[in-house]
Design a protein that fits this description.
With 180 residues, this protein is mainly beta. It has three helices and nine strands. It folds into two domains: 105 residues, Chitinase A, domain 3; 46 residues, Thrombin, subunit H, CATH 2.40.10. The strands form two sheets. Strands 1, 2, 3, 4 and 9 form a five-stranded antiparallel sheet that branches. The protein has a four-stranded antiparallel sheet with strand order 5-8-7-6, with no helix packed on it. It is elongated.
Length: 180
């Protein structure tokens, strides 16, 4: 089956930066499973996978504009240290999410009572180099398309959060997404 919009795709991948350093990999874990064409992975990688089928391999470079965007200096700002009391001891490199504003924040500097945080994605401005192997392609179910993500055992991976509850039926037979 060919990869196209609304197909469930399973891939094994390795992600490297311009210097060849491995940033992420599915090695040692289950393949990444997603619904193609629904913004579940970065657009540039999806573009390179269209038309591929089980067993195909792809090596590609994805520019920032098709990945996590260009680095934006306007997303770096200073915040009074007192606003971080609930997070305990802060260190440069600490990452956290807030209920307000941008998603992930990274502490880049602590000086006196001022904390500098960066709201850019950690890979913003980076060209991403992928080596991908297509493991499986199948039709998505109506429920998966309605919910916008993969369900069932094939959805369980290292960060599914189900702790094998999917297979044991402890979450109502679902993948732990909360929509079952």
């Amino acid at each position: 089956m060919v990869i196209e919009k609304d197909r469930v795709v399973s891939i094994e991948y390795m992600l490297k930066d311009d210097e060849g350093e491995v940033l992420d990999s599915s090695g040692g874990s289950d393949p990444l499973v997603y619904i193609h064409g629904n913004e579940n992975i970065i657009a540039g990688l999806e573009k390179h996978l269209v038309g591929k089928t089980n067993g195909d391999s792809v090596s590609c470079a994805v520019p920032p504009v098709e990945a996590y965007g260009e680095y934006d200096d306007n997303l770096v700002f200073e915040v009074p240290k007192e606003r971080f009391k609930e997070f305990g001891d802060l260190e440069v490199g600490t990452q956290f999410r807030t209920d307000e504003g941008p998603g992930l924040l990274t502490v880049t500097e602590i000086e006196g009572e001022t904390v500098t945080v960066d709201a850019n994605h950690p890979l913003a401005g980076e060209t991403l180099h992928f080596d991908v192997k297509v493991v499986d392609v199948r039709e998505a179910t109506a429920e998966e398309l309605e919910h916008g993500h993969v369900h069932g055992e094939s959805a369980c991976g290292d960060d599914c959060g189900c702790d094998d509850a999917c297979e044991e039926g402890e979450r109502g037979g679902g993948c732990g997404c909360g929509c079952h």
